[in-house]
Design goal:
Length: 147
């Protein structure tokens, strides 16, 4: 049975979740619609000397992804721009792909540099290897005796 598009993607979801106050923050929803909560799914694995972070970014090209390290936070940014695609002939009836951007940050510590983080992108998965680095230990303060 076809339901008019006035009701959204699923008529019953709209009825049974009314009001859904989580929908007020729709920053990521411009790019992926109602399924924005499934975007940038991440797995983090801990090893003795490093962490492995796998981020799902389906549909993005390597050029669309950026990594930034600032104040101990590793930020993954992805931007999709449909204007770069070639124009196709024919009348567009429905468009479900949108342009927009999203980002996610991970605290990795203030002692890492850009050279420490290794990243690769293949088959829609961004794989990062982040070493564990601890703060440099300061020499212990010695108390000066007063005579």
């Amino acid at each position: 049975m076809l339901v008019p598009s006035v009701f959204g993607e699923n008529l019953f979801d709209d009825w049974f979740q009314f009001p859904d106050f989580r929908d007020f923050d729709r920053t990521e929803r411009k790019l992926y619609g109602r399924h924005a909560d499934r975007v940038m799914r991440t797995d983090v694995r801990e090893h003795e000397d490093h962490f492995e972070i796998d981020v799902d970014l389906p549909g993005f090209a390597k050029e669309d992804i950026g990594l930034e390290l600032h104040d101990g936070y590793l930020t993954v940014k992805a931007e999709k721009n449909l204007n770069n695609e070639e124009k196709k002939e024919g009348k567009l009836i429905r468009q479900e792909r949108y342009m927009g951007s999203m980002q996610r940050s991970f605290y990795v510590g203030e002692y890492l540099t850009e050279e420490d983080v290794k990243a690769s992108f293949k088959d829609g998965v961004l794989k990062m290897e982040v070493p564990k680095k601890e703060a440099k230990k300061l020499p212990e303060k010695k108390i000066i005796a007063i005579e």
